[in-house]
Amino acid sequence: MVLVIRLAITAFAIWLAARWVDGIDIIYPKEKDDWWQFVVLAGIAIVFTAVNALVKPVVKLFSLPLLILTLGLFLLVINGLMLLLTAKITETTEYGLRVDGFWTAVWGALVISIVNWLLGVLVPDGKD
């Protein structure tokens, strides 16, 4: 249940980033009903979560010297790259996430991180 709530928070954060940051768009079938927007958004959230779970730890390991040198600020770049990778993966289908450039991805990743952090405080992690 916690995983579903976290995926919903991630989907909401991606939706907010698409609303607030110019250059980030969610492509979904316009001729269908609004339910398809939720389905596409859930798919994007699943891909984003998988990318963050599988690719991000490896990238963080290889960029450890830069992370230490920049006192962790390089994580913004890594988060932007993970958003770009999510966009490239979902663009292989007809629908998905479209990000116009690197700095747009960094701003979008910043919005997603802040929203995930703010709403993630409300969700118990099940470690109690």
Structure overview:
With 128 residues, this protein is mainly α. It has one domain. 69% of the residues lie in helices and 6% in strands. It is built from 6 helices and 2 strands. Strands 1-2 form a two-stranded antiparallel ribbon. The radius of gyration is 15 Å and the shape is globular. The relative contact order is 0.20.
List the helices and strands and how they pair.
Blueprint: H1 2-20, E1 24-27, H2 35-54, H3 56-62, H4 64-69, H5 74-90, E2 96-99, H6 102-120
Antiparallel strand pairs: 1-2
Helix pairs in contact: 1-2, 1-6, 2-5, 5-6
- What is the topology, as strand order, of the major beta sheet? 1-2
From the spread of the alpha carbons, the general shape counts as globular
Can you summarize the main beta sheet? 2 strands, antiparallel
User: What is the terminal separation in angstroms?
Assistant: 15 Å
Q: Look at the helices and sheets and give the structural class.
A: mainly alpha
Q: Give the radius of gyration.
A: 15 Å
Please tally the helical runs, counting DSSP H or I stretches of 4 or more residues.
6
Q: How many structural domains?
A: 1
The topology string of helices and strands comes to HEHHHHEH
Q: Estimate percent helicity.
A: 55-70%
How much β-strand is present in the residues? 5-15%
Number of strands: 2
Provide the low-confidence segments as ranges: none
Mean pLDDT across all amino acids: 91
Oligomer: single chain
Pfam families: Phage_holin_4_2
Keywords: Membrane, Transmembrane, Transmembrane helix
Protein name: Phage holin family protein
Organism: Antrihabitans stalactiti
